[in-house]
Amino acid sequence: MKSMKPPLLLFIFISVSLEALPVSVTGNNVGAYHPTDDITVDCGSNTSSLVGGRNWIGDAADRSDYSPIEKTHSSTTAEASSSSPSIPGAVPYLTARLSRSEFAYTFYVTAGPKFVRLHFFPSDYPNFRRVDSFFSVEAAGYTLLRNFSASLFADYTHSVRFFSKEFCLSVGEDQILNITFTPTPGTSDAYAFVNGIEVVSMPESLYYNTVVDSTEGIKVVGLPSPRTLDTTKALEAVRRLNVGGQFVVPADDTGMYRTWEADEDYVTSSDIGILPVNTTIQLNYSEQVPNYTAPDVVYTVARTMGTDKRINLSYNLTWSVEVETNFYYFVRLHFCEFQIEINDPLDRVFRVFIDLQYADVIKCSRKGVPVYRDFAVALYDSQKKRTNLSVALGALPDGSTLYSDAILNGLEIFKISNPDRNLAGLNPDPTPPASKAAKIAIVAGGTLGCTVFFFLAFFLHRRKNRAKDSTSSDGTSWWGPVSRSTTKSMKTQWSSLPLDLCRYFSLAEIRAATNNFDKVFIIGVGGFGNVYKGYVDGGATPVAIKRLNQGSQQGLHEFRTEIEMLSQLRHLHLVSLIGFCKDAREMILVYDYMARGTLSDHLYNTDNPPLPWKQRLEICIGAAWGLHYLHSSAKHTIIHRDVKTTNILLNEKWVAKVSDFGLSKVGPTSESKTHVSTAVKGTFGYLDPEYYRHQRLTDKSDVYSFGVVLFEVLCARPAVSRMAPMEQISLAEWAQSCCKSGAVEEIVDPHLKGSITPECLNKFCEIAMSCLQDKGANRPSMNDVVWGLNFALQLQVSTELEAMDHVGVSVHDSDDSDHDAASIRGSGSDEASNTSGGWKSSRETATSTRARSNDVCDESTTSYDAGKLP
Ligand SMILES: *[C@@H]1O[C@H](CO)[C@@H](O)[C@H](O)[C@H]1NC(C)=O
Ligand SMILES: *[C@@H]1O[C@H](CO)[C@@H](O)[C@H](O)[C@H]1NC(C)=O
Ligand SMILES: *[C@@H]1O[C@H](CO)[C@@H](O)[C@H](O)[C@H]1NC(C)=O
Ligand SMILES: *[C@@H]1O[C@H](CO)[C@@H](O)[C@H](O)[C@H]1NC(C)=O
Ligand SMILES: *[C@@H]1O[C@H](CO)[C@@H](O)[C@H](O)[C@H]1NC(C)=O
Ligand SMILES: *[C@@H]1O[C@H](CO)[C@@H](O)[C@H](O)[C@H]1NC(C)=O
Ligand SMILES: *[C@@H]1O[C@H](CO)[C@@H](O)[C@H](O)[C@H]1NC(C)=O
Ligand SMILES: *[C@@H]1O[C@H](CO)[C@@H](O)[C@H](O)[C@H]1NC(C)=O
Ligand SMILES: *[C@@H]1O[C@H](CO)[C@@H](O)[C@H](O)[C@H]1NC(C)=O
């Protein structure tokens, strides 16, 4: 095995030089930060080695400070099997700590945020097969990895078989940082392993922040005001790109040993722009953006749109990074103006889109002043494990800016932990063997992530220090001179320009779209007026057109509020407002057309085939997600006030969208005021009894109504059945009493008989019951509901899979919340308000048979925070 190393190193070196990839540029601010804790452990090694200027301490040495703690003392150390085709040949990947039972490393570190980097080389080790590693890693109360397969991950990401994962987490005062490795229970061969561990301090406010004002903080895409990222969140680094530039190895970071990749493999727009560079610019860091934020080299190269204005305007400069779904992502964009022609803030103004949604407008900074902008975006998808997160920059048209152009210098993307302190996603599906080939070639081509760079760092270090190769090194850089300069700070003025997101339609356009409000086009009727189906854009785009009654109570003020509010609310699970029309007499709102009508249509209208159970669950999850988004809106909680199955619409892909915010109220902001007092509105049968009694509206009133929706979905019975026996009139009461008496199966929709697993049914009823708690304070948040429903879905799917494959999927329910739900009295009042706020579709497209995938979210991946961030 040892004899393999030199040729392999040489091979990589040659490939890499041919491709001219790893240019390490040593800037002036290298080592600008000195971490208080800088610990590197070479797991499974009985010696310590100095690599990259850092002492990797063997955990197997006698009396090592970092020997793991184990209950069973059964872990072993090993070298990677020599039959392994691509042994990396560098510390810490040569040796590993492995065990079929739990082991933990203990680090006595100072309080504050830390990087935790875990290094893995999935390989055959004596008595441990490469494919059998399945384990969880926990640290400081966070789940970093769960049932993680290092081999599946490596194969999927085409890495050179070894890789590292970087996490950021905060260690409290007097807290000991324990990192615990636990093999996945239930499989006898499963084992946990690790090759290397780094724990490195970071500056308090590098990524975490506590300040919120209108200019600082993290802008959550789709929400109006910024949030903070507080230290209750952990992060996992997904990508860190030196845009327009070259690899930056850990040793050339600002002291935190981060790796910065070249961005070219992530540029996905048709045009990739051009790469300006300024090697003489004096970088002027500031208090807000100190010199350790990123290496100088990040700020002195960039990618811009090109030299032709027409081209600049015709595309968005776009980067895409594949990420796991069902998490929030933290996206940091680094900018620095250094081009000679840019002088004034209005010289280069451009828009940022994240995940295809408008995020911000960027004005240029003062010359040579590094700045960054932080965003967060939720990527929710109940069907897919992974998706591409896109960041796009688009030029503003002539007139608003001197150069229709955009610039980006650096890009960092992190996954944000869920409220249950989890960062773990699902393993990727196994990669077909063919695509596993030619790893080294891929390395040379540079497609892979941070993993290579650790290797390169060691490699370069070896070259530098051992001078194995006679062509090597003048000490800092082989690649020629680089600018070096740092001066002191300057305030930067990047500001947001307001952008009108909402389109204006002329009355003539609306008349043309609806054949002058022809009755034939009416698809819904509500207290406010009629809803028409129409086509705009020359017939290309179907829309739903809500024409407010001229005598409608919804006055101009409400009309305007709705437009302002809705145009700020963009979410996959909310019906989008496309535009509006305001005439002397008409007030018209134009929405996305929902081809499959309302959820109610699919529960009660016998023209539609009955929806299968999993699809119902997914629709509930989508709607819950939409409501959660309303409730967690930045400045205000938005309370829907009229949650019901006729207000949950379905598009052609069966994606649930919450609609009709006609009654919505902006809720309280501060904790001191937890409700808004208001005349009772809503729909009988769905009405929160607490709200009804006290006229105190809170977001929990929506949770109550949603509980009724859940039982409707389960039973396909309307919220109120007037002709039914007394005790069955109110679905909420009837369903609760059936649940309590254990007779719930009797009220389940007969179409679903036999298709709901008992575990799933229990969980589902438990969630619905908790939503119907008499006291609002005892009801879950919509976030909890999203979480719980996903868990129910997972229970359904895993039980089905188990039955199918006899696979031992172990699932357990950790949530033992008791439900002492009291009975609900909707006492007296009839039909408190309009009965149909939604609109129906023409039915021609309706069909409920759709191929379902089994890729369902893990319980761990689906929840997100209603609190601070996100
Ligand atoms: C970074 O900034 C700090 C404080 O402003 C300063 O003390 C330090 O010398 C700078 N380091 C480098 C490498 O520029
Ligand atoms: C150190 O480990 C190597 C193999 O990893 C082994 O050959 C050697 O005997 C060990 N030395 C001690 C002192 O345990
Ligand atoms: C961490 O490990 C130490 C030593 O085993 C133990 O005393 C301590 O309770 C652990 N702390 C946590 C938070 O698990
Ligand atoms: C780099 O920036 C400096 C200072 O603003 C400027 O004088 C110089 O012309 C710039 N060089 C290039 C290539 O843009
Ligand atoms: C840029 O992206 C946004 C969001 O996806 C899109 O609305 C806009 O049309 C795009 N611009 C161009 C020129 O393609
Ligand atoms: C992300 O984009 C890449 C290339 O554009 C594509 O190969 C990959 O399949 C995409 N991933 C997902 C999950 O859509
Ligand atoms: C288009 O972008 C290029 C390069 O980034 C910039 O130099 C140029 O001025 C832009 N063109 C116009 C006419 O604005
Ligand atoms: C662990 O992951 C593997 C591969 O993704 C999967 O087949 C298995 O069911 C998972 N086990 C558990 C307990 O989640
Ligand atoms: C750096 O910024 C400060 C504060 O804005 C300013 O006073 C100083 O002149 C700048 N230095 C250079 C070299 O531009």
From TrEMBL:
Superkingdom of this protein's organism: Eukaryota
Subcellular location as annotated: Membrane
PROSITE patterns (alphabetical): PROTEIN_KINASE_ATP, PROTEIN_KINASE_DOM, PROTEIN_KINASE_ST
Polar residues bias locations: 830-851
Keyword field: ATP-binding, Glycoprotein, Kinase, Membrane, Nucleotide-binding, Serine/threonine-protein kinase, Signal, Transferase, Transmembrane, Transmembrane helix
Keyword Transit peptide set for record: no
Region: Disordered, residue numbers: 810-870
BP terms from Gene Ontology: response to metal ion
Pfam families cross-referenced by the UniProt entry: Malectin_like (PF12819), PK_Tyr_Ser-Thr (PF07714)
ATP-binding listed as a keyword: yes
Membrane topology type: Single-pass type I membrane protein
GO molecular function: ATP binding; protein kinase activity; protein serine/threonine kinase activity; transmembrane receptor protein tyrosine kinase activity
CDD domains given in the database record: STKc_IRAK (cd14066)
TM stretches of this protein: 440-460
Domain Protein kinase: 517-792
Cellular component GO terms, alphabetical: plasma membrane
SUPFAM superfamilies found in the cross-reference section: Protein kinase-like (PK-like)
Ligand binding (ATP): 546
Signal peptide bounds: 1-20
Record's protein name: Protein kinase domain-containing protein
